Every structure is written in structure tokens, then in C-alpha cells.
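pipeline/complex-builder :: batch 7 item 3
reading input block
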Amino acid sequence: MRLKVSNIDFYYDSIKALENVTFEVNEGELLGIIGPNGSGKTTLLRCINRALKPKVGTVLIDGRDISKWGRKEIAREIGTVPQGFITSFPFTAFDIVLMGRNPHLDRFSREGKRDLAAVKNAMELTNTQHLAERRIDELSGGERQRVIIARALAQEPSVLLLDEPTLHLDVNHQLEILGLLRALTCQSRLTVVLVSHDLNLAARFCDRLMLLNSGKVHSIGTPDEVLTQENMRQVYHVNTEVRYHSLTRSYNIVLLSPTNGGG
Amino acid sequence: MDKNDFEKLYSKRRFRKALILFGLLIALVLMIVFVVTVGSVHIPPLTVAKIVLSKIPLISNLVSESWPSIYEAIVIDVRLPRVLLGTVVGSALAVAGCAMQGMFRNPMASPYIVGVSSGAAFGAALAIVLGGSMYILPLGAFLFATLTVFIVYNIARVRGRVPIETLLLAGIAIGCFFSALVSFMNYIAGEKLPTIVFWLMGGLWASNWDKVAIAFPLILLGIVGMFLFSRDLNIMLTGEEHALDLGIDVERVKRIILVFAALITAAAVSVCGIIGFVGLIIPHIMRILVGPDNRILLPSSCLVGAMFLIGTDTLARTVIQPTELPVGIITALFGAPFFLYLLRRRRRVTGW
């Protein structure tokens, strides 16, 4: 088991944000975390990479507990693509991806051949080599997102976490980003955990989905096991129709009407 | 892209960096020699170089003494300590300003943002009012400058974290508090008032070798320390959350940068008062000229800050001879229009 998260509880002051969250992700697997606003998706991602320190619970990578690790050690195993990248500073895409090598460098050393090779590989995988000398603040949303993913890949992590990687992207870029992540799990055996609000995209590209509700795991399993009409009613309070689409070979959610506070 | 392109791109970067820094270093050395020649008595550059070399052990034998002894007194006792102190202080303010702007991700940040200047001003005013000697004054300024940063940091700290906005606001509030105390000191200072006011304006007129000897090691330590964190500063410019994800212990780095910046700013302020503008504007000018990468931005700001301060100080001591202007007047008078010119012309590249 690549990533094993057990019994995570997290509080913001006295407000419980996560309760007893437990799940596992295999090598080369793509897990999608879904759930309504405030269900704890982002908090969970930030507990996994220990940007937030959960009150109880453990995170194991290949069976090793990461709670005693330093930031750099964690960053060598877990690459993170947070939500929203806001730098107005004119760094080039190359500069940004090179920053991904930071966890592999100590304070007195500078980037060497090994690091440049990792940068090159990351930019090739994300198809961003041609953007290397462009300014990050002048790239389009889709290009920028690919550069940030390249930066995370330059860390050469075994686990990649992404917080709504398709937010604010138009449909073709959404497909492109998720297709890229899908390919990475297959070719590089990367383990990917992503948070998404787009149920249809998640259903189409993820091996398994985890549905969070009020900080608890409501259900976890293959898309057809999780995206049931019953679950949608209980968690999102909407009536839906779930259809299998033969061309994409995935499940589609059709939103019908709110249940008016039912459940 | 072909296989070695990234290596080429990277080595091109490093070559450019080396070239810029080497050029600036040569320019600084030439400038130091030049400004020492300038004053009520003009001393030829070659003579200046010879006098300086004659004071360096081992080389001194190679230089034959062929200048009036008054030249030696002017160069060694008067102009050189002043120019060297200017070099050190200019570097300190520019580097501290650069690091503060980077850490706060705020173009308004200066070395004085966390209250160093008001703390130092209070310490100096207190020393003057209590009638301390010329050695107590810098000590008072240094103590209160560092104390202020310590207070500001601890007020801004919430459960082991120091949100940058809180730090900024705490710095402003504590700054106001100490400014009020300085006003109070001014009010009760009596005949000592001009001394306080003149000190507050800042300047290099009271330079001597003792001050160089005190300020230089502290500032050198702080600047070198800061250089070691330039990659961290770069990454923190993209946001603290990103920095954390890339393996940076953000809170620790902030603490270290703050300590170094406070150290060098306090050292600079305690020997020459509050010289404004250098720490605010030089980093901006250099960001426009060399880009946002702190690995070249910090050292080039350091060199240009030094040149800027010794250049403006030379104007300050020569434009209305035999008396002199506070250098802060000149730094703002000449720096502001030049900066605005660059701002208009190359707004696109600043990132702000």
C-alpha cells in the first residue's frame, strides 16, 4: 500500500473538521475526493502532507510514518498542487519548475545535472518544455496549471496531491489535465489523490472516489458504488439520475432538483 | 526542446549572474576611489590608490611616499572611513529592504517596516536626553531597534505561527508607539532638541573607523546569512502554502530572515541615524533591472545600495560647501524621480 491514512481527526480551534478519516491508496491509483463545500476535502489534503497537523491519526507512505519527518523529507515523497497560484512576479516557467528541486537541495548547494534532468523530464511529461522561458504570470490558466504540476513532478514524489486542479479551466483544459494525471498513474506508477467538485470528471477519470460529508467518510469505492442516487440525496441534497455512458465508459450524473432540506 | 537545452539555459543564467555581479563589484571599487578624491581638496585618484595601498601590510613596501602628509590625513582619517561606512550601510539597507519586500510580498516594505527605525530613534533620543556620550548613543539605538523587532514578532505570534499581515500591522502599531515616545523626548529635550532632530535625519558626517569596525562585522554576517536564504525567499514569493509544500519550514525561515534583517538594519541605523529611501527604492530598481530572482537580486542590490549611498553622500557633502546636507534629503531628491522614470518605463517587469 503506497499511502495509508488512518483515523485522522482535525480541529480548527474547537470545531471538528475531520473525524476518523481512514483510507488507502495503491501505487498507480487515482483517487478522487468529492463532497460538498465545507466537507473537509482541502483540510484532508493538507493533513496528508502535514501542512496541517492532525490531532490524532497517522499517515503512512510505504508503511513509514511521516509524522516525525522534516518538511524536505515530506516534500521528497509528496508533491502538492494547491488551489490557486498567485504570483505576479515575473519568474519564468523554468524558474518555477526548478523550485520543485528544493527538497533535494541543501542550503549550500545549487542545482546540478541531476536536478536539471528531473526538471526536463517533468516538463516533458506535462508538455510544457516550450513554455520554459515564458513568464509564469503571462501564461494562460491551463498552461500555468500544467507548469505547477510539472513543478510538483520535479520533486519526484511517490504521491501527488492536487486541490481542484481543474478549477477555473475551460472544458478542453479540464480534460487535458485529468488525462495527464491518468497517464501519470499508468506510466509512472504515481499515486494521485485529487480533490474535485466536478462529479462527472471525477467519475470518468478516477479509479475510486471517496465521498466526504461533514468531515467524515460517507462512502468510498468505485465511481458507480459511490455516485448513487441515495448518496447524492443524503450528502448533496439533490435528486439525480446516474447514467452509464458507453462512449466514455463512465457514469454521468444528471442533476434533477434539490430535495429541499431532505436527506 | 533538445536534450541539453535546460543545461544551456541554466548555465546561461549563471554566466549572466556572474557577469552582472562582477561588473557591479568593479564599478563599486572604482566609485569608492572616485568619491574619495572629491571634496574641498581634490586628491588625484592615483594618489588615493597609493595612499590606501601604503596602509596595507606587505604591499606597503612597494609604494613610495610621494604625497603631502595632509593628503594622507584627509584620505585615511576623514574620507575613507566615511565612504566605507557609507558602503556598509548602503549595502545593509538595500539588502534588508529587499528581503523585507520579498518576505512581506509587499512593495511598500522597507528595512524599517517592523519598527526598527522608531525603536532606534527612541533609543538614540533617550541616550541624548540622558546625556550619554557619543558611544552610548549607538548602543541605545541598537538595543531599542532590536528590542522593538523582538516585541513586534512576539505580539504577532499566534500559536507558533506569525501571519505576515499581523506582523506588518504590529510593526506599524509599535512604530507609532515609539514615534510618540520620540516626540515626547523632543518635547522635553530643551537645548538638546537639535541634536535629536539632526540624528533622526541620518547622515554619515560623524563617521570614524570605530563605527566601521562595529558595523562591518554585524552587517557582513547578516548579509551573508540572508544570501543563504535566497532560494527560500524566491519560493516564498509564490505563496507560503506553496513554500511549505516545497519543503520549506516557512515559520523558521521567516524568523531567521527577520533576525538577520533586524540585525543589519539596527547596526546601520545605530551608526548613522535613519537614512530613508535606500532600503525602499534600491530593491525596486534592481528588481526592474535584474528580475525577481533573489539569488541575483540580493547581491546586486547590496552592491548598488552601497554605490547609491556613497554617491548621494558625496553630493550631500559637496553641493553647499563648506557645510553639508543630510544625505536623506539627497537620496529622496535624486532617487524618487529616477525610480518613477523606471516605474513608468518598465512597469511590466516589476511584478507590482
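note: Chain A has a mean pLDDT of 92.
queue -> next item
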